[in-house]
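Bumping with the actual sequence this time:
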Amino acid sequence: MTSVTDVEQLLDELLRREGGYVDDPRDAGGETHWGITIGVARADGYSGPMRDLPRERAKAIYRKRYWTRPNFDAVARLSPTIAAELFDTGVNMGPSVPSAWLQRWLNVLNRGGRDYRDMAIDGAIGPMTLSCLQTFLQIRGDLGEVVLLRGLNCSQGHRYLELAEARPANEAFLFGWMNGRVD
């Protein structure tokens, strides 16, 4: 399990997995360095050549855009494992995607509203999502965390399958997307 203070470890593992500069014409994201697309780098104010994107700048982008802003740091205070999964998926698909999956899974795991009430699926982790997660974990314990993680992984795998089926060029990336995901 990853502790709240291990965000730096998550970042280091991510950068190791993503590697250096890539400009694969099959990749709809265009040029990347450390896994940061040119669009994300430009949105963050980086204007230099992607080949020169500093490692520490990439880490700062990931930390801000994919950890703090989507509130995964708050999730980590309740479940470092779930937060690590949300972070990993959010980097690949945007943070609102796994956030919405978390909300959906929590809604269907609340035993028909007996444990806590359903929440709106808005892809934003706020007080309601955190409260539902906290109650779910208190009631279901360690096994609940494992089941929730499995659900999130199922959703992630299904989305990767859909992306590869919808755009044949993505088949080149499917194996890598599935390999090394948080278990």
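The tokens above came from a reply further down the thread. The chain has two domains: 1-54, 70-183.
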